[in-house]
Amino acid sequence: MPILEQNKSLNSYDAYIPWILSFGIAIVLMSTDIYAPSLPAMVVEFGVTEADLQWTLSINSFGYCLASPFVGPISDALGRRSILIVSFLFFVAASIGCAIAPTLFLFDVWRFFQGASSAAIPIVSIAIIADILKGRQFSSMMAYIGIVITLSFAVGPLIGGIVAEHYGWRVLFYGCAAAALSMSAIYIYFLPETLLKKTKLSLPHVLEIYGSMLRDPLFLLYGIIPSLMLAGFFAYITSSSYLYINEFGISRPEFGLITSIGMIANAAAHLVVGRVTARFGERKILRFGISLVVTSALTMSWMTFIDVKSAYTLLVPVLIYNMALGFTFPPAMSMAIMRFPNATGSASAFLGALRMIILGSGSYLGGYLYDGTLVSISSLMVLFASLVVIVFLWVSALRQKQEREAQK
Q1: Residue 62's pLDDT band (boundaries 50, 70, 90)?
Q2: Which of the two ends of the chain, N or C, has the fewest CB atoms closer than 10 A to its terminal CB?
């Protein structure tokens, strides 16, 4: 791990902290869409519509968003370790609730609590990494951790398709609970407290911090870029399962495999970013990622125009989109969080809530607008990709303005 070895403040034990945290993040993120291949079967089991099932993905995001603003300031004031462990234990209970839910309403309720309980895990984990790494080291490590996170998304639908085919979708949530319980035990024994300087916990102080973030346009815009990217991706994920399985006739394991291939491309992009960030810097890498977004949108538009009906052919723009995610997420997140180095927990929480709101909107739109064809899916992917480009141009204009003012 050459990036960590450059930081002399870390010993050999601390060097494993980001990797332990990445697996914890992977577990909760895997729970987000591990049951995506089972959505058509769940429609039949619960006797509901496809749009009703799409809501189960969005309500998880809303639970995450409601909890996010609280966990950041609490971790900045009370410490990181305890809030992570407690959150994992609540996540275990919520996952079991999802597994035993007899109705869609109760499943929605437990999905909401699953999202709320999981909020602290990625938010506080990123804050811990920001505690021990700074600058390009932080950006590079975010890229490496992105590999583990991305592979969890890749493995999730693949496992979800295979397991659900033989044992049913409920077993998936029992598995999430078992994995989270194991990870909480690892945190109890191996995760130290990394917060050295605590802030005061009061409503005026929290409002002051979040107010300063709302007044920082670069912080907001850098956070919006990966959020829009993920929204487009989840709009694709939530609707493509119906299109590929019901219309194209592929099996649930095949759908999981196709999704996994795209995630592997994302992981490969993260690996490249982790290796080249120190050389090229975040801004150049972000620009390259935006160019991939444009390429993906144009390719998807063309394939929709010629009416492609093959899930494997559609992998081309999806692979490019996944690579774009890998090249945009680490630098954008790094440049956003490092604008508030003394409030990394709150900054991570703010960005996490923003990300899940936009991501949840993408999932909801994907289900609401799905019309049984590729048109609705590709339109949303192109829409979110176009918004990413607009935000990036806005960021570039703001930075150029600040640089001109600094030279005066």
Answers
A1: confident
A2: C
The structure tokens listed for 178 are: 């078992």
Considering only CA atoms, which of 244, 253, 219 is closest in space to residue 344?
Answer: 219
Alpha-carbon span 17 to 141, nearest angstrom: 11
pLDDT tier at 110 (50, 70, 90 boundaries)? Answer: very high
244 closest CA partner among 223, 221, 261, 227: 261
Quote the CA–CA distance of 196 and 166 in Å, as a whole number: 49
> Do residues 340 and 219 lie in contact, with contact meaning Cβ atoms separated by under 8 Å?
yes
| Burial grade of 33 (CB within 10 A; 0-12, 13-18, 19 or more) | buried
CA distance 236 to 228: 13
The residue whose two tokens read 């049951």 is 35
How far is Cα 354 from Cα 282, in angstroms, rounded to an integer? Answer: 21
**Roughly how many angstroms between the first and final C-alpha of the chain, as a whole number?**
42
Judge whether residue 197 has pLDDT over 50: yes
Locate 30 and state its tokens: 């895997």
Structure tokens at 24: 């914890």
- ∠ CA 246-247-251, nearest 5°, is 50
Query: Sign of torsion, CA 347 84 326 144?
Result: positive
Contact assessment for residue 88 and residue 24, using Cβ atoms and an 8 Å cutoff = yes
Domain boundaries, the chain: 11-407
How far is Cα 332 from Cα 222, in angstroms, rounded to an integer? 5
Distance CA 21, CA 129 (A): 9
Whose CA is closest to 267, among 26, 18, 38, 6?
Answer: 26
Q: What is the mean pLDDT of the chain?
A: 83
305-310's contacts with Cβ under 8 Å and 24+ in sequence apart are 307/374, 308/374, 309/247, 309/248, 309/374, 310/248
Give ∠ CA 31-35-167 in degrees, rounded to 5: 115
- CATH class entry, domain 11-407: mainly alpha
Mean pLDDT on 369-376: 84
**Radius of gyration of the chain from its Cα atoms, rounded to whole angstroms:** 20
